[in-house]
Amino acid sequence: MSRRIPARFHFVFGLAPQTEPFHLVDYLCLESCRVVNRPESITLCYHHEPYGPYWDLIKEHLHLWSHLWWSDRRRDFSELSGGMLTERYVRSAETTYALLARRFLPARRPKLLFISPVMRRPTDDGRSMRAHRVLTGLASTYEVDLLVAESGFLSRVIRGWLRPAPAASPST
After folding, report:
1. Structure pTM?
2. Cα distance between residue 121 and residue 65, in whole Å
3. Alpha carbon of residue 67 to chain centroid
4. Mind listing the pLDDT tens digit for each residue in 93-136?
5. What is the Cα–Cα distance from 138 to 121, expressed in whole angstroms?
């Protein structure tokens, strides 16, 4: 089964502040793409929007995508790009857009493994509620993974960690 490659074109422009009007050559590049290829869409990714008479002629034919929507508090990008544009995708993809967009991502939060003898629950017995409150607080600063392990197992693991490593035998 052969699938047709979508006729969608992407351009990146305006990563630095614009000090001159959009140039005729830039306009002709976009306009020739539009006229010759008749694409489904032309997306222009930018950080600083171009300006000038040539920009005014072409911008109504473009899907404009500014990096300004990227907020350090935003974690849900599901409504963008059909749900494909996630922070994880931008951090790992080797596309031109992802490589350029990475610098606009919020700094990664440090990872933390939280080991608890009980599952967290906002309403339950005291231990579950306490675990819920602690995890909720930690999640604002850390990327938290939760490991729920029974107390007996936990104490055996911790004792294993605290045991000194065996001394290396002298090599001959």
Report:
1. 0.42
2. 41
3. 13
4. 777 767 777 777 777 778 888 888 777 777 777 788 888 888 88
5. 15
